[in-house]
Amino acid sequence: MIDIITELKSQFDSATVLTDDQDMAKYITDWPGTMTGRALAVVRPTNTTDVAAVMKLAFETATPVVPQSGNTSVAGGSVPDDSGTAIVLSLERMNKIRDVSPSAMTMTVEAGCVLETLHQTVEAQDLFFPLNFGAKGSCMIGGNLATNAGGQNVVRYGNTRELCLGIEAVMPDGRIVNLLSGLRKDNTGYDLRDLFIGSEGTLGIITVATMKLFHLPKARATTFAVVPDISRGLELLNRAQAETGGAVEAFELIPRVFLEMVQKYGPQHTIPFKEIPELCVLIEIAATSDAESIASEGGATPVSEKLEKILEAGFEDGSVLDAVIASSEAQRREMWDMREGALEIVTAAGARIGFDISLPLDQVHAFVDEMTRQSEAILPGLRMCHMGHLGDGNLHYSIYPPEGQADEMMAKADEIKAAVYAAIGDFGGSFSAEHGIGTSKLYAMTNYKDPVALAVMLQIKATLDPKGIMNPGKLLPQ
Ligand SMILES: Cc1cc2nc3c(=O)[nH]c(=O)nc-3n(C[C@H](O)[C@H](O)[C@H](O)COP(=O)(O)OP(=O)(O)OC[C@H]3O[C@@H](n4cnc5c(N)ncnc54)[C@H](O)[C@@H]3O)c2cc1C
Q1: For 25-50, what is the mean pLDDT?
Q2: DSSP per-residue letters across 17-68
Q3: Are 55 and 205 in contact (CB under 8 A)?
Q4: Given the CA of residue 67, which atom of ligand 1 is nearest to it?
């Protein structure tokens, strides 16, 4: 019988195959630090041929494989379980940018390219890759594709899926599928690219991708605006979309509960209001043309004047109560640093039950009201933090205990989750918006996903991964 570790060590050098506990430590614990598994080895190939060779061995020996890119998953998807039977296949050394084409507005990059490195590389050529969120300094494009990541610019550019033109992937048995195309139209049967995107490492390994690029905004206008409630916030979004011809780059919902946490757990951040407001939105609009981005003698760019007009109309009709416009790039950066640091802050705030959900835009307000009502009945004083990417209906919804009642809240965690999941169904939403299912949402996937859709997914999984070696125990119930 083949021993996979002996075989891996005979085919690859010691920088590629790690088996020492210390060397493997960072690959087997997830970002929040709550899940630590065990692995037979961590394998770090540098090219697709080697990924294919590793997968052939894994297939022959029926060894489970956990694909990993930046290991920033917050759903438990990127680390092995504690059986110690799996290998972690890290893409971190496949980090070449193969091509940036300003004329085709595409880049072809290996799976282990760090998102922020991609931003910097293309921005140096006046191009823009709009996928952006707090983990950008660590997460990698392979992981972004495997989770169909979202982030703050989805309202304008879509999720990672919408940004991808083609991928190369290695199948569980080691075959290489070349779907690496910069084509914007390609109707040649089932879209296997889309099958891999969002599959969380359960169908194969994404090794290379061709991604869309955009014109780098020449000017941006950013504001924190206080709104009376979520519905009025949406009115403001729709006005901004109409006035800018759809140039709203980001539209983020920030409630009082979060700003209070910022004061306590993120004192390095600056809250732009003297008194903490009940609810605000962080809005950014952008311009790529000279006509909209060259500042007048007064110093204002047309795009920032446009934002001022949108806010003025909001003041007049009551959809805006107060607003601070970033007056410099440094102030804009401060606003975004606070938003991008949100996950660290909500995590630092202690015991919480967190959700990553999406709702039809016109149902977000009603959902939040309904959950506030229901949670008060479950445990009086529960605090809701409905942060989120409001522009695309995605809430990072966290529930915190009343002061000193963490144990009481956790004892009711199942009841709270059941209430949230039921309400999501009632309001036509999804229990998983952008972080993926991993292991943390398996319960919801098993119980709340349409049963026929789930059965079809299991059929696809069984066909493409007949030995069940790809990231077992993640995304789909076993
Ligand atoms: C501070 C912070 C903020 C975040 N904000 C957001 C946000 O706003 N929006 C958002 O969508 N996510 C967010 N996330 C979650 C996370 O960063 C994303 O899910 C990200 O896309 C994961 O990329 P990664 O490279 O770290 O993947 P990993 O964590 O390594 O892997 C994620 C999943 O993809 C699989 N996988 C990884 N690489 C491959 C590959 N090459 N082929 C096949 N499968 C693979 C893994 O097995 C795992 O199931 C945030 C995380 C943090 C820590």
Answers
A1: 96
A2: EE-SHHHHHHHHB-TTS--B---SEEE--SSHHHHHHHHHHHHHTT--EEEE
A3: yes
A4: 47
Task: Report the residue count for the chain.
Answer: 478
Residue 180, phi then psi, degrees to nearest 5: -85, 90
Distance, CA 155 to ligand 1 centroid (Å)? 19
Residue extents of the structural domains in the chain: 97-215, 219-342, 350-435
Contact 192, 176 (CB under 8 A): no
Residues 83-104, mean pLDDT to the nearest whole number: 98
Q: CB-based contacts of 104: which residues, under 8 Å, 6+ apart?
A: 182
Distance CA 411, CA 86 (A): 33
The answer to whether 219-342 and 350-435 have equal CATH topology is yes
CATH number belonging to domain 219-342: 3.30.70.2190
CATH hierarchy code of domain 350-435: 3.30.70.2740
Residue type for 175, please?
A: R
Among 65, 139, 148, which residue has the most ligand 1 atoms within 8 Å of its CB, making it the best to mutate?
Answer: 139
| Partners of 384 in beta bridges | 399
pLDDT of residue 181: 84
What kind of fold does domain 97-215 have according to CATH? 3.30.465
Give me the pLDDT at residue 277, please: 96
Cα–Cα distance measured from residue 200 to residue 77, given in angstroms and rounded to the nearest whole number? 7
Whether the full predicted model's pTM is greater than 0.90, yes or no, is: yes
Six token digits for residue 451? 């049963």
pLDDT tens figures, 303-336: 999 999 999 999 999 999 999 999 999 999 999 9
Residue 77 Cβ < 6 Å to ligand 1: yes
Confidence at residue 75, expressed as pLDDT on a 0 to 100 scale? 96
pLDDT tens profile 146-184: 999 999 999 999 999 999 999 999 999 999 999 998 899
Counting from 1 in the atom list of ligand 1, the atom nearest the Cα of 150 is 11
Q: Name which of 411, 410, 384 is nearest 398 in CA terms.
A: 384
Separation CA 311–CA 226 (nearest Å) = 10
97-117 mean pLDDT = 98
Amino acid identity at 129: F
Strands (E), 232-352: 248-255, 279-287, 322-325
